[in-house]
Description:
Blueprint: E1 10-16, E2 21-26, E3 40-45, H1 58-64, E4 69-74, H2 88-106, H3 109-112, E5 119-124, H4 126-136, E6 159-163, H5 168-176, H6 178-193, H7 203-206, H8 217-224, H9 243-249, E7 263-269, H10 281-294, E8 298-299, E9 304-306, H11 318-337
Parallel strand pairs: 3-4, 3-5, 5-6, 6-7, 7-8, 7-9
Antiparallel strand pairs: 1-2, 2-4
Helix pairs in contact: 2-4, 5-6, 6-8
Amino acid sequence: xxxxxxxxxxxxxxxxxxxxxxxxxxxxxxxxxxxxxxxxxxxxxxxxxxxxxxxxxxxxxxxxxxxxxxxxxxxxxxxxxxxxxxxxxxxxxxxxxxxxxxxxxxxxxxxxxxxxxxxxxxxxxxxxxxxxxxxxxxxxxxxxxxxxxxxxxxxxxxxxxxxxxxxxxxxxxxxxxxxxxxxxxxxxxxxxxxxxxxxxxxxxxxxxxxxxxxxxxxxxxxxxxxxxxxxxxxxxxxxxxxxxxxxxxxxxxxxxxxxxxxxxxxxxxxxxxxxxxxxxxxxxxxxxxxxxxxxxxxxxxxxxxxxxxxxxxxxxxxxxxxxxxxxxxxxxxxxxxxxxxxxx
Length: 344
């Protein structure tokens, strides 16, 4: 399903003054009443190289949402080719500002009537790392990207969806081969040893994986997460992570103030081309779900493997896109009707 070329109707919002960042709110389906005021927001975070409307299925998803929901795609400092000089911490600070903006925008008269707009985060690919990092990392670490004392406290969300949450480490090794992977890792570690962790690695070194993309030593090691510790900040989804590690990530999803659990859904591609053949997809998702439940989180009934889905639903049958939209719509309906909320 290639991304439709042409104009995409909607509203462009400026949600952060510095850095000056915007968010695109997709226009609803024509079958949705134009007089109805949107109450709830699905904020979609793309992966590496993504920005608004670059993920092929987002226009279809926007048109399929329940009438009271709108799909929003924020521009982050790391969008398009700028991810190589950014971090998950910086992403999360900007996403929190976007969440706060739409919570305030959707409040007002509805709040006076006892209603309050819901906000759900949906990550695609590396955007899923942003989502899990939003849920489980320390908010005090997210001090980049124009943060103030006010916005260092992470804005609450009502649910989270992680689609195509493939491991960057495992994908890089499969793409590059072990020898090339180790070569770039060694170069990045030498930069760190020399006190140049935030310097950009030579393009000739990193181009075997990402041609013409500036990448700092910090971000490369975050994504590549080399042995023996595999402690890269981005390394949430590798299939070889220990139970102890998963307990510290997925096991923390439900641990929020006031008790209870935050609703989570995984949509893992049944034929995601970036997932190595040795990965037991159902078994891996089941492990993540188990730790979410153990920590008090709520795993949505539609969570699991999305059969027939490649990484971005680029080359799939229409039925696969429709199934994704059905699962997301059902999830949003359950969030709207329930009381799950995540606060940090």
